[in-house]
Specification:
Order of helices and strands: EHEHEHEHEHHEEHEHEEHEHEHHHH
Number of domains: 2
CATH topology of the largest domain: Rossmann fold
Number of helices: 14
Number of strands: 12
Helix content: 40-55%
Radius of gyration: 21 Å
CATH class of the largest domain: Alpha Beta
CATH architecture of the largest domain: 3-Layer(aba) Sandwich
Oligomer: single chain
Structural class: alpha/beta
Length: about 400
């Protein structure tokens, strides 16, 4: 059976699907992962066939207001929509679609007459339990939260409208708007499996049938992967350090932010590992090390704390390691995950990236490294996450969908 996974966005939006795809392949399925060119090495390293999607989020990355983010998203989706139909030219038997690719993938499934399944990393469905992940707002109460959630979906429809129109024309399908397509999928209880843990976000009781929270899908890790010798030496040379990294979302003054990080670490009396990332963090000294990409699953369990941008993947990796965090959200769904970590007691109160100072970061680091309640909360969530079987739940659903 041939399965096509389609995912797009930043590294954190794609990497979990390399692990999911590798596990599906291990279960006997023929798996391809369609994503943008930048992540081809990740896909191939997981033993999966790479299919190219148009577009590059790096070309549209902006840190600004909601309007700027909407413009950047629309530009990326328009690019991605071009040539999207080509990824199913060989006729897969099943489509697995991320939240980013589903509004386009639904039309491929319709044209090819094949089943599809949502595999999402963020809770996109409106609920009274919390406001939409992309608004970073406070709760508006149950009625207000649901209304805001519906508005967020309507804004997403607008982002996809042009790409959907062009794609349906290329597929020779009758015209149907992005919003009408979404409503049709909702009425049919189109199944979506959410790849995060109920330890952090319980399944809302007001969600429609077909929506399930199954547990985290972890990025593929090769059996021979290890930490670089320089990192191993630094870890052994003193007390547990703190990781500081802002992933692929942050943009700004690298020298200034690096200085803030180093000042905060030294004010708190802590050693640090700075991950360069897209921001380009860099610092030198006996008490600080700058690194590139390193496997979080190998590094994080050996740390005192993690300072991160609160992307879904990095937030989950820190929790999996049982390590407390200082979230510094930048944009998109990051404020949502940052607030979740803090509410669970596994992280300090979020410090918005725009408001980051050495003083605030140092104070937060002192709290999470000296007050054991943070580490205990992170360890408790880690144990609950270890009991999840996210991939197993996907396999069960696939077998149920295709058994007939």
């Amino acid at each position: 059976m041939r399965i096509l996974l389609a995912a797009a966005g930043s590294r954190g939006d794609v990497a979990p699907y390399t692990g999911l795809g590798a596990e599906l392949r291990r279960a006997g399925y023929d798996v391809a992962l369609a994503t943008t060119e930048a992540f081809a090495p990740l896909v191939r390293a997981a033993g999966l066939e790479f299919r190219r999607l148009h577009g590059d989020t790096r070309a549209h990355r902006e840190v600004g207001g909601r309007r700027e983010l909407m413009r950047a998203a629309a530009a990326f989706v328009t690019e991605m929509g071009q040539g999207f139909a080509e990824v199913v030219d060989d006729g897969p038997d099943l489509l697995l679609l991320s939240a980013t690719t589903a509004p386009l993938g639904w039309h491929l499934a319709e044209a090819a007459g094949i089943p599809s399944l949502g595999v999402y990393l963020q809770p996109t469905e409106p609920t009274g339990d919390f406001p939409p992940t992309v608004t970073a707002g406070r709760s508006l109460g149950r009625i207000g939260n649901r209304a805001a959630g519906r508005f967020a979906l309507a804004m997403t429809d607008r982002v996809y409208e042009g790409a959907v129109e062009g794609l349906r024309r290329r597929l020779r399908l009758p015209p149907l708007s992005a919003s009408a397509t979404r409503r049709r999928q909702e009425r049919a209880n189109w199944p979506v499996l959410y790849g995060f843990s109920t330890a952090l976000v319980p399944r809302p009781s007001d969600w429609r049938p077909g929506l399930e929270v199954v547990g985290t899908w972890w990025p593929h890790q090769g059996a021979d992967e290890h930490l670089p010798a320089q990192v191993e030496g630094f870890l052994r040379a003193g007390p547990r350090p703190v990781f500081v990294g802002f992933g692929s979302m942050a943009a700004g003054d690298a020298e200034r932010v690096s200085g803030i990080a180093v000042q905060a670490l030294r004010r708190a009396g802590l050693r640090g590992i700075l991950q360069a990332g897209n921001l380009g963090l860099a610092a030198e000294g006996d008490d600080v090390l700058t690194v590139g990409d390193v496997p979080h699953s190998l590094l994080f369990p050996r740390l005192a704390a993690v300072v991160h941008h609160a992307g879904a993947g990095t937030a989950a990796a820190a929790l999996r390691a049982g390590v407390p965090a200082v979230p510094v959200p930048v944009a998109a769904d990051q404020p949502f995950w940052a607030a979740r970590l803090a509410a669970a007691g596994a992280a300090a109160d979020p410090i918005p990236f725009r408001s980051l100072t050495a003083e605030r970061l140092a104070d937060a680091l002192v709290r999470v490294t000296q007050q054991q309640s943070y580490a205990r909360a992170a360890e408790s969530i880690s144990r609950r996450m270890a009991a999840d079987d996210g991939t197993g739940r996907v396999l069960t659903t696939i077998r149920r969908m295709t058994s007939g």
